[in-house]
Write a structure and sequence with these properties.
It is built from 13 helices and no strands. Among the domains are: 142-252, Receptor-associated Protein (Up-down Bundle), CATH 1.20.81; 256-318. It is mostly helical. It has helices at residues 3-30, 38-42, 49-59, 73-82, 88-110, 113-159, 164-174, 179-191, 196-207, 212-225, 229-253, 255-278, 290-314.
Length: 318
């Protein structure tokens, strides 16, 4: 087999790995079926609810105790909070395969070990992490938008005389994902012997949404000290809605800064790529010079510093 044929083989393998990664990460999320409650879709009226609970935990990389895998805690927590169901082991294998395929393709194309290592780092490490962070942010945002409705449903259930675990189970049955499945897992854990506050803390670890600790604190205080939980939760629902409105106002006000950051970041990269395609030899004579490498490293450093400064300018916490 000639070198050109080997190159095409690795190109095809890289394309297959990238396509599978994109399918596993995005195809399910675009499906209209994922807007319904996944836990309820898996449940059989005459089946074993505990088996469904075990399956949901296994898909998310969560141990039998409801905690994330301690051996890879940070990555397992990121995968769980992103809501992926492909499993941590499969995700790591897929990322590694994509990185290796891209590295081999780059090595054959560019004849450079350094560029091959860079391609492996980008394709096998950086891009999966960026995708996971994007999915986690989107899931947290959707969960936060659903949280006031879930709290109001719990309040109505409490007014009807139901205990708190039953009210939480009602949220798990009535609302769509992601909040439906998460509250359903809490209800199942309580059913099989877990403490309500502990189950809610585990949910906070699986979701990481910033308004959820307010709900957890309210339930914890009521469980230890008593009090009118209905009034507390009703007030909490109003507070969370106001926080959501404030976040949207801040996002609108900071839109100009965010767009400026995107443009200023993308422009040098796009220009560099365009020059390489239009005139590949434009930097040919000076590409290997020490001063050129120092200049490029300095440009990347200033670009990163500028992005950090702009992120600081448009980030608001309250």
């Amino acid at each position: 087999m000639s070198e050109r044929q080997v190159f095409y083989v690795f190109v095809v393998l890289a394309a297959v790995f990238v396509a599978e990664a994109l399918y596993l990460l995005f195809a399910e999320t675009r499906s209209s079926r994922d807007r319904v409650n996944r836990r309820m879709r898996l449940s059989d009226p005459d089946g074993d609810r505990q088996a469904v609970l075990v399956r949901l935990r296994k898909e998310r990389g969560i141990s039998a105790s409801g905690e994330v895998d301690a051996s890879m805690a940070a990555l397992a927590r990121l995968v769980a909070q992103a809501g992926l169901t492909i499993g941590l082991t499969r995700l790591v294998a897929l990322s590694a395969g994509t990185g290796i395929a891209l590295a081999m393709t780059t090595a054959l194309l560019r004849q450079s070990v350094l560029e091959a290592v860079a391609a492996m780092a980008v394709g096998g490490l950086l891009m999966p992490l960026l995708v996971l962070r994007f999915l986690r942010g989107r899931r947290r945002k959707l969960f936060g938008n659903q949280l006031p409705e879930a709290i109001e449903l719990i309040v109505r259930s409490l007014k009807a005389g139901h205990p708190v675990p039953v009210a939480i189970g009602l949220v798990g049955r009535e609302l769509a994902d992601p909040i439906g499945t998460e509250f359903g897992i809490v209800a199942d854990e309580v059913t099989y012997g877990s403490d309500l506050v502990s189950a809610l803390r585990k949910m906070q670890g699986r979701v990481g949404q910033e308004d959820l600790p307010l709900f957890l604190t309210a339930v914890s205080i009521q469980a230890t000290s008593g009090g009118n939980l209905r009034e507390i939760l009703q007030s909490l629902s109003d507070v969370i809605r106001q926080r959501i409105k404030m976040r949207r106002k801040i996002k609108a006000i900071s839109a100009e800064g965010r767009i400026s950051a995107y443009v200023l970041t993308a422009m040098p990269i796009l220009l560099m790529v365009a020059i390489q395609f239009i005139s590949p030899d434009y930097y040919g004579e000076v590409w290997g010079e020490t001063l050129t490498q120092i200049g490029l490293a300095g440009a990347v450093g200033w670009l990163v510093m500028g992005n950090l400064m702009m992120k600081k300018m448009i980030s608001f916490r309250f």
